[in-house]
Every structure is written in structure tokens, then in C-alpha cells.
Predict the 3D structure of the following.
Amino acid sequence: QLQLVESGGGLVQPGGSLRLSCAASTLTLDPYAIGWFRQAPGKEREEISCISSSGHRMKYADSVKGRFTITRDDAKNTVYLQMTKLSVEDTGVYYCAASLVPGFPPDRDEYIFWGQGTQVTVSS
């Protein structure tokens, strides 16, 4: 069982930056594609970015393209989401999830392990 732990959330002003981390506390992240999702208040959870197991392919939702960057450091067993130019619309709980399917990007239902989430609040 892969356990994922998100960290790095917090309160930030509009225009600010945060870096989220998704760390594996049990198995290695090497074989897994990792996705970042967010759930805003009153809205469904949406996928905002994902990275392949090799780290060579990335995908971004249009809403974050050009502002967010996903990277992975398998030596540290961690995937990062660097978020810049944050706006109030980026507020929500951010989750990371892992998928073992060979294709990229994984479908939503192909993510089999999920973290507990970290809160990001963008407010002045």
C-alpha cells in the first residue's frame, strides 16, 4: 500500500507562490505517475497536473498552465507542485494521487492511492 502525504499548503496573498510536496512514506514512487488534484469549496475535485513515472511527460489543466510546474525527485521520493501567480480561484484542498497504468496521462479512475490533502487559501 502506497501512502502519500501532502504538505506545503497555507495562506498566501494573491500573486504569491507556494510549493506543495507529495511524499511517499512507504513504497517508492518510481513506478507511479503522480497527479495533483484540487477541490474548491462547493466544487468537484479537478485534476490540475500530472507527471509520468519517468518524469519526462507532464500535463496541466488550462487554468494553471504557465503558472504551475510539476516536478519529481525520485531520490527524495517526492513530487512537487510549484505554484506561482496565485489567485483566489486557486483556493482549495490539494491532493496528490498515484497511478500504475502504463499509459499517460492516467484516467481519473486509474489513480489508486490518494493523500489526505493540504489546504491552500489565497486571500488578501
Observations:
- The chain has a mean pLDDT of 96.
- DSSP finds no helices and eleven strands in the chain.
- The two ends are 40 Å apart (CA to CA).
